[in-house]
Queue: 3 jobs
Job 1
Amino acid sequence: MLLGIIGAMNEEVIQLKEVMNLLETKEIGGYNFFKGTLLNKEVVLVECGIGKVNAAICSTLLIQEFKVDKVLFTGVAGGLNPEINIGDIVISTDLVEHDFDCTAFGYDYGVIPRMENSTFKADETLVNLAKRVAANNFGSERVFVGTIVSGDTFVASNDKIKWLRDTFKGECTEMEGAAVAHVCYVLGKPFVIIRSISDKANHDANMNFDEFVKLAAQNSKLIIEGMLKEI
Ligand code: SAH
């Protein structure tokens, strides 16, 4: 089995790259795909860059070019649920593109017209495995399983938090997960998005992000490693 692992930023993939046994690097369109083994599992690791389009390109390439069987995303996110603190873990049950807005035609926010489905469900087996590994590492009180909302926006306002909670019941927000989920849904691949909280998406979000991004990325990476041992 070949696993695709994606992170958006260098901070989110560097620690995995350092411990993997790198066999080959393939560059496509400026994205570097690292092929090798990690804890004796065959993997392709890629830093996709920030935002939904970058994430969609890399997910598609992982699946079509590298023929990965499953896709895991590791990274950081802004917490929306007030019970979630910096460093806590959110595992996706499903993902929505929160900035999709065709409400002018009577659609709800997040609904993609002419698609059967706009809420992309993660693979239950991967979700349960991620949840168990995360709880073992961090304690179940620090692990949240629920909806992740993605958009091409760094969320840093209480009004936006309220809107995202009221509209989508999002546990956390980030900029890539729903794009990965959308591609995996279209191409029929199981996936899960694992995020550790770097900030609380409020007016301090940019400062908190800079301070906690490394720690949060490390938390998420620990879960990926724990999952690889059991996958
Ligand atoms: N400071 C960075 C930009 C980070 S963008 C730079 O200058 O390069 C934020 C990244 O972290 C995205 O990949 C996104 O997925 C995630 N993220 C963390 N907190 C977020 C928030 N509050 N809103 C949206 N995305 C967030």
Job 2
Amino acid sequence: MMIYLDNAATTSPKPERVVREVDRAMRQYSANPGRGGHKASLDTAKAVFDTRTLVKDFFNMESEEGVIFTPGCTASLNMVIKGVLKKGDHVVISCLEHNAVLRPLHKLKQYGFIDYTVADVVIGDDEATLQSFRSAINARTRMIICTHASNVFGIRLPVERLCALAHSYGILFCMDAAQSAGVLDIKMTDAGYDIVCCAGHKGLYGPMGIGLLLINCDVPMNTLIEGGTGSESFNPAMPGYLPDRFESGTLNIPGICGLGAGIRFVQTKHRERIAEHEMKLIRYAYHRLKNDDRIILYTPEPELEFSAPVLSLNIRNHDSEEVSKYLSERFGIATRAGLHCAPLAHNFMGTSESGTVRVAPSVFSTQKEIQILCNALKNFSHSS
Ligand code: PMP
């Protein structure tokens, strides 16, 4: 039996109800929504709309129109970065960003189109983090983009205050919620986030290949992809209204329905309880490992207020790949070694050379599994 602790890459297993819903969607909703007036097409369109409503309510949004289904968080972030920014714009990001933020920005910068500044995060000092973002803002800054929580170290950013900071300068706030959606609270309207990008396949327990772009403002945003929407078909330009503007082509119906089932699963289990359960496991691991001087823990003391349930560690003088391989081959424990597509975060932590071993539980993880992990890590150091 595998002990799966690589849930920050994608949650596994998926809940049974998600698997069943994908199967059901493929059988019952095999007609194209919005492309016909016949009953089968209308039924599929209704299933899509119902999921939009569910997403809207889950993230406390004002309307369904701002719920855009995308192929994933990477696609959503690219749509925002390339759709919103104009020549000469400047962006502020955090030092914990994933390549899904960094690479699109880097490309635009390489073309001389935009510029960006990386603001440092000061662990445990939100005031200092805010100050670091504040001093990175200049007269050309159009947007702050930052992750809700680091997918490597679990460190949380003071996103509500960063959003307020952005607004006080009249700039947009876009949050990468790939690591947090389904675990941390995201209330778009209350917090005032302009744009939130989510992965469907992590804490929302949906299938891979589905993501969300949540728009809660009326920013002019260009399209990356143009095509049929089933609406305004005589118009050679994309419709101006949401969600059609950003949803051309046939939608991923099994993915959308599966994501809906994932969100309902999270609601049934209660997001807060999932977060507390995962955090308890991370706290347990942290306290079992913290006094072993051969083990280096990079994640600060796990507190839900300051971190998401992810633990990054190394065994002194050993490469993270070696440790992860040992855990997998000797104990059947799945962790993720290396840089986790977040080179900035590793630069920040000084772990670019070794990478780290990342432990990320899900709602299905148990204390017994974390015990086995801790024993395996301690034995590695004894046996080496
Ligand atoms: N941002 C962060 C912080 C992530 O952890 C991930 C996925 N690991 C992404 C963006 C990309 O998400 P997706 O896999 O849905 O494209």
Job 3
Amino acid sequence: MKPPSLSTCSHERIQPFGIRSPNSDFTLSQNAKTQNGNITPLEVAIQQLDLASEVLDLDSTVCEILKKPKRSVIVSVPIKRENDVINVFTGFRVQHNDIRGPYKGGIRYHPDVTLEEVTALAMWMTWKCAVADIPYGGAKGGVKCDPTELSIGELERLTRRYTTEILNIIGPYQDVPAPDLYTDAQTMAWIMDTYSQFKGYMVPEIVTGKPVNLGGSEGREGATARGLTYCIHEAAKHVRMRLKGATVVIQGFGKVGWNAARFLHEEGCKIIALSDVKGGIQNQKGIDPIEVYEYQKRAYPSHYKGTLPLEYDGCTRITNEELLEIKCDILIPAAMENQITEKNVANVNAQVVAEAANGPTTPEASKILVEKGIFIIPDILANSGGVTVSYFEWIQNIHREHWTREQVYSKLRCQMVKAFKDVFATKKDYETDMRTAAMILAVGRVAAALRTLGLWP
Ligand code: NAD
């Protein structure tokens, strides 16, 4: 076995802000109990690391170092609600590893956020940046809250207070946040402004995923989905699939799911099912995601994220569970962790599973997908387009440059195709599956950097 190579290794719209659900009686926590009874994301992340370490025959101390984050911070975030009552939320920032560059990772707002989940996501960021071969480490943040229950003013106060609480551990060369679940360009603008107010001058490079008029990169909003599409192109060559007419099922119609639907629709794929937290729609004749998006915008003009129109013309209403079992060419989980599990994997009927979400498949289920001959584009590769364009945004900010969308996407394509090829080459070298190959490549790169530096003092 060879060691992994160390050296090589839109018209987009910024949606108007506001995360309220159109149904006031609807809360995320009632609908997102997907992890109950399943292995936790941190257990998954550690199992994956153990497996890669074993294959790489890593020194056990290196593996021990990589199993633990360098820093975990829990903060309390008090804010005044619209009714003048003060609520205290809990926030987290976990910095897993920065040996290859500043910590980098999104911030999510969700009622189910825990320190454990954020730790797993931070670890995955370290591997993702290593697979994409960009000079960043891994971090993640979150605030335990239901953003659909907060007003825009409350979200702004929550974001600014959370930023203040983590101010001394973030910085353009220290830790650079980005959007994730239920946070967006507006959230990043508030973080940038809060940080800059303390500094006394504007520091756009403190966050990525900002609005373009505040130094955000062209194409960042669709970057994760664009990168995913480039990976799907590469995978299609290996499974000899024609993308024109290929059937696609997408779970999650947020920043990543909606853009993936749009880009694949433009490529001539047939989107046969879509879903969000409340459920999904299916139409074997094909769904036009742009029409659905426009309908959603018309139906919920004051909310940037209404829910899918579940009674959409010609479509059958389905549950998220049913959606994952629809026969299709490409299945894209683009919502939460732990969606494809031992319970439903036997019924997954796709040729390619492209993991836009982080950790959507449990290790057991992943093994079964491989046994079934399904080609997996693992999360740390599939969704690395987001952090890659974040890296481009950071470079543009530091140099006070502004690249065109064409420049951004052309550089992104090069990075994604190279990352896919690196993973595929590792898969062949180690005679393993794509996920294990991606982990071997990533952990190998990080461990090599650790070995070169040695332990100080
Ligand atoms: P988002 O908040 O914009 O959208 C999330 C979507 O998932 C919404 O449509 C929501 O209704 C749906 N959803 C939430 N819970 C669900 C559930 N239990 N079942 C089904 N659908 C559910 O978030 P996003 O930025 O699109 O992120 C989606 C996933 O992609 C997350 O796992 C995130 O970590 C990952 N990711 C995002 C980026 C990025 O650039 N935004 C980059 C890499 C990875």
